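Feature request, filed as a ticket because there's no other form

It would be nice if the structure record came with a short human-readable summary line next to the C-alpha cells. Right now we just get the raw output. Example of a typical job, pasted below so the devs can see what we mean:
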Amino acid sequence: MKLPPESTLTTTDDSRLTKVQLRQLIGQKEKALAEKEGELVKALAHQEARFNKTLKQRETYIDVLEELLRLAKVQQFTASSEKLSFQIDLFDEAELDTAIDELADQLPDDEPAKPPKTTRQRGFSPDLKRQRIDLLLDEAEKAGASRTFFTKVKEELDYIPAQMVVLEYWQEKAVFPSTEGSSTIIAAAQPRHPLGKCQVSVSVLAQIITGKYADGLPLYRLEGIFKRYHATLNRSTMANYVIRLGDDVFKPFINLLREHQNSGDYLQGDETRIQVLKEDGKTAQSQKWMWVVRGGPPGQPVVLFEYDPTRSSEVPKRLLIDFNGIFQADGYAGYAAVCLENAIIRIGCWDHARRKFVEAVKAANTKKSLGKPTQADVALSMIRKLYRIEDKIKGRDIEEIYRVRQELSVPLLNELKTWMEANVSKIMKGSLTRTAINYCLNQWEYLIGYCQRGDLQISNVLAENAIRPFAVGRKAWLFADTSRGARASATCYSLIETAKANDLEPYAYIRYLLEHIAEADTVEKWEALLPWNVPLEKMKNNKPGITKGR
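Raw output as currently delivered:
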C-alpha cells in the first residue's frame, strides 16, 4: 500500500497561532504554490517547444525525403536530358540580342566576321565515294536518234560488307654458294608486328580497339561478328591483345601525350565510376574511378583517361604534374588541394551547378507550387541567360568574347549571387534547391573564373563529351575483370578520343599507329605518330572519289 507523500511544509498547530502568524503562514503557502505553478508552466512550455521543434524537424525531414523520392522516380522513369518540359523566361531575349549586337558594332572594322550559320544538309555527304552506274538504251531503242546524253536521276546509299582474308607471307630467300662447299642464305626482311608473334594483322587489332572503345561493342559481340565472316577469334584472345597493347605497347606513347598535354595552359578534368572485379584490397562491389583530362596547346588537343581504384587527391596530383595554367573541373575537393599546392588556377563548371537546379525543378512538388515559379526556376532562368550569351558569342574572336563577358556576363553573375545570398536562408535546409545554392556560393570564386579570358569555356563540357563514350560503352561491357584490363581500356579510350578531338577517323589513326609504332625507336619517330603530325586526312576535309562502273 502506497503512503501519501510527506509534505515539504512544516506542520504547526494552527490553534495556537495568532492572526498575524496565520496570515504569514497563508502567504508562505500561497507563495510556494505560485512558485510550483510557475515551474510547472515553464516545464510545460519547454516541453511544448521541444515537441514543436521535433515535429517541425520531422516535417522537414519528410519533405526532403519526398523530394528525393520524386527525383529518384524522375531519374529512373524519365529521360535523363537536362531539358525541361517547360522553362520559364524571366528575361527579355530580344534585349540580350540587342546588347550583344551593340557591343559587336563597337569593334574595329578589321575584326573577323561572325561565321555563317550552317544550313541543313540535303542528300548524302560529299565525303562519301561515288560510283557511277550508267543506265543504257539498247540499240533498237536509240536507233535513229540524233544524239544521246545522260542525266542523273537518283542516288542510293550502298553498303559494302566487311570481309576477312588470310594474309600469307612468302619470304623470298637467296642462296649464295661458297668455294668451301657450303652456301649462304639471305632472306627478305619481315615486317615488324607491334605484338611480335601474333596471328592477326594490325588491321584486325585496330578493328577490335575501334569496335569496343569507339562503337561500344563488347568483345563477345565482336566474336560473333567475326564468326559471321568465317573467322574464329574468341573473346579471351582479343582481351589479351587489348591488354598487351594498352598496358605495354602504347605506354610510352601515352607518356608522350601526357607531357604534350601538360605543356598547354588550359585543361579540363572529370571523373566517373567503373567496376573492376579483381582489385587488390577492394571488393568487386566497391567504387573505382576512371579519370579524364582534356586540353593541350592550341590546335593540338589531347584527351587522356587514367584508371585508379581510389578518388584520392594523389590522382589529380599525378595527372597534373608539371602543369602550370588553368584547370577547369567540378567542385571535388581533391582538385582544390592539388591546384593550391601546385599554384594552378582553378575555375569551376556551370554545367555541374546548373544540373543541381535542374534536379530541384524536376523533384519539385507541383501541387504545392500551383504552377508558380519556384526558387529553382528563378535561378535556372538567370543561369540560362549566361548560356544564351555564350551561344551568341560562340565562334567570335577571343577578344570580343572577353569583352562581351565583361560587359554582360559579369553583371549577371553579380545579380545572381546577390539573389542567392538574399534567398538562401528562406529555403528549407536539406532541400535540393538549398543544396544547389550552397554549392554555387561555396564555389563562386571558381564559377566566375571563365570570364577571365575569352578562350575559356563556361563549363568543362569538352571533358564531359570525351567521357560520354566511356559511359555509353560501360552499359554494354558492364565491368573490367582486372586492374590491368582497366588500365588498357583507359589507354584505348585515350587514343580514340584524342583522334576524334583532332578530326581524325579513329580506325584509320589506330591502324596507322599500329603500323608504325614497332619502328619507333627515337623521340623523333614517336613524335611523328602524334595525331597532328600523321599524314592522314581530316574527317571534315575528305574529298569524294569518283569511280565508273556499270
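Something like this underneath would help us a lot:
The radius of gyration is 37 Å.
The CA atoms of residues 116 and 395 lie 10 Å apart.
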